[in-house]
Amino acid sequence: MKYWKRSISAIAGAALVFAGVMPVSAQTSLEKAATVEGADLLYGSNNLTLEGESGYALADMAGTPLTEAVYGSFSYNGGYIVATGAEGGLTSTGVLTAEGKELVPCRYSEIEVLNPHWILAITLDEATADQYDYSSFLSNDAFYLINTVDVYFISQDKEASCVASLTRDQYLDSSAYGEYINIQDRATNGITAYDSAFQPVATDLSYIYDEPVDGDGLVTFSSNGQYGLQDAQGNTVMEPSFQYIYDFYRDYAVVSTGEKEGLIDREGNVVLPAEFDEVELNYYLPEDPESESTSGYGAFGYFSVIQDGKAGFADETGAITCEPKYVADAVENCGISLLMTDAQGNVSIIAADGAETLIEGYDDVSALYYGSGLLYEVRNTDYQEGLIDWHGNVLLPCEYGDISLSADGNYAVTDNYDGYIDVYKLAFDQDGANAETEAPAETEAPAETEGVGTETAAGTGSTDTISAVNVLLDNAEAALNEDPEGGRESAAGLLASAASLLEGENADAAALLNNAVSLLNMENTDADSILVLIANAREQIA
């Protein structure tokens, strides 16, 4: 196995066929799936929680219990459910699948989900402020030292096995990429990569975040100041055509000539030609369990682009579907739509298909997290919430105390705080969804553009990431300051998105934000403690 400083996780191979997702049409509908007593949506997941006599149970979106009601709390983390037994204490936390299957027994103090394949289960001993690894955000005088770190590998069919048990001296830090895990030894500071059986495959790594390049990975290579893509065997997947190739978000990566940006897919096909000033990232997509992120470049076959400071949309063919004519600084990119507020305070939704709808009669309009810009929450002057689509069509009137989406974006949950919730299944009328479309046998790469840079590593997008994170943190702080209770859910979504962006670049800041999300999902935590965590995270990325 080789380890490369700059690798791009992608599917190798020549591009012959791709799964083309055609743009969604205007029709969106709701169908009530269930009314459930004593339930809540576990935010960030596709599960409900049910209150029982002695604890809580995990349930599916129809309200069907998946576990016994023996848990004190649940939180969602990287595609899994971190569960704490009703008895609480330092030895009561474990991990469940979304189907309620126990992966890691509830006998640990702390859980760290590194990726879908690797989970660390940690036992802690009480310590003092003079030397500690963990401290409690709920108490100023609770400190803990690591006792053991059990390393669990999760197979593709969701079978878990504890492949190693490490002492505190054997563990300082970790990162995971696919089925490989990097462990830094506290005693030696050495970093070793292990496979799924916890056999060492590379030693003396330079950085904890060094990524493995195996048969499914792509790396950048340069020729004459231009960058292309190769697989792990050195086969050219995409000829050197760009000055920069940025990291993939889901299925796409931004490429740049140094002056203009475009998009490529994971097979090296050019999806959008490098003809735009910027291809915009959005933060409202359904969660991707692999990356624990709601960020991405495309939704339902549309991409937000900026030209001459104006925002618009293009589709997967590169055709402009909404002319870039809206001042980019005056709109929010929500996925397949833009939310625009003009100087007079009028709010409009600009749909990716070119439709512009003035939204009237509401006190507040905001995109729903996990809704891809297809769904908007509206609020009247009585703080009652409703739901509209990207063309302003009313899906639910303003009759609810709260409306949230499941993490996959397929269910809307309404709550009037009367002991019941209603669950609605969302249906999107999409032409040709998931249809396989034959592409040309060879995609012609754009002509090489004479660049101004030298042969350095392809851009990582770190500056863009920090800028995007700061915007999310600003919005989270604003939500909590404006409405410390009502803004908790919105703040949790914003902070979760910020944490996912920072996972590979600043693990400490990401951990602070994930802790903030966990606190927001707990009762009786005040907004001030969350704001302190946000401030600490800002210091980490400054």
Automatic annotation (TrEMBL):
Listed transmembrane segments: none
Keyword Signal on entry: yes
Keyword Ligase attributed: no
Record keywords: Signal
Superkingdom of this protein's organism: Bacteria
Biased composition (Low complexity): 448-462
Signal peptide: 1-26
Ranges for region Disordered: 434-462
Pfam families the UniProt entry points to: WG_beta_rep
Stated name of the protein: WG repeat-containing protein
Organism classification: Bacteria, Bacillati, Bacillota, Clostridia, Lachnospirales
